[in-house]
Amino acid sequence: MLLLLGLFALGFLGLALAGGWKESWQQVLQLSALQLSALFALSLVNYLFRGVRWHLFARRLGLPLTPVANMRHFLGGFAMTATPGRVGELVRMRWISREAGWPFTRSAPLVLVDRASDLAAMGLILAVALSLSAMGIKGAVSVAVLALVASVVVTRPALLTLLVTLCYRATGWLPRLFARIRSAARSLRQFSTLPVIAGSLTLGLAGWVAEGYAFHLLLMWMGADIGFFSAVAIFVFSTLAGGLTGAPGGVGGAEAAMIALLKLHGIPLEVSVPATAVIRVTTLWFAIGIGLLVFPLAERASLKAMS
């Protein structure tokens, strides 16, 4: 993680030097403590709303844990965001196994439906923002459609089970693993009701729009107001694009997409580079920081529950 943070800093240092490091640094210095606090607060809104969604999913699954425990698991998992494909966040399943005595296959639907809800919310936000903004982002429609399709597949037990079965028949590999995945897919039925879908989608939309609004405010404060919907579209598309690369935390892909799209909108490097650096620090790295604080608490609590 420290290596990734170092590469993140070096990358932005190189871009800042290319675009005029004094001007870039001046853009950062002009932000007040109150403005930075507002950016962190909006990110915290996202994490808390999604944490509440995680708790609701856990309750729906029948997980016998308190809201505090569920929130601890959700936030602690952020410490492992900077892993390829974010697979490190599966550490939440280990805590659930220790505290509730559930095997991984029983808690797997919780992870699947949480990720699907994020994809659905971000896909919808991107589609709406694109339709209401004055800009066009090449490939954005495809990314939005891909996110929505993936969310539908993951939350449709029959469809997901069919795809798993077809994959097994095509490869013939790891029969036990495919059997467990099919079992987890069938458990998704309890998340397919209208109240659950509506509630989870509302929380996800509110959370991700809060971070998109933070990016909009940041651009305005740096004198680069491109409009709310354009700012939200760039933020969500870049986040999704970074995730599609499979890189730890989407680092590299998300930043490159954000800077490139801001440039297409006429924003010079001395503004786009610091704006991208600040929003990534107040979103991705802020989440990792929270996760690092909560992680040892979650680990200690889970070990205590086992004893």
Automatic annotation (TrEMBL):
Pfam family, one: LPG_synthase_TM
Annotated transmembrane regions: 28-49, 119-137, 143-170, 191-209, 215-237, 244-265, 277-298
Gene Ontology cellular-component terms listed: plasma membrane
InterPro entries listed in its UniProt record: L-PG_synthase/AglD
Major site of localization recorded for this protein: membrane
Keyword Iron: no
Keyword Nucleus applies: no
Keyword terms of this UniProt record: Cell membrane, Membrane, Transmembrane, Transmembrane helix
Mode of membrane association: Multi-pass membrane protein
Subcellular location(s) of the protein: Cell membrane
Xref: NCBIfam families: flippase-like domain
Protein's name according to its UniProt entry: Flippase-like domain-containing protein
Species this protein is from: Vannielia litorea
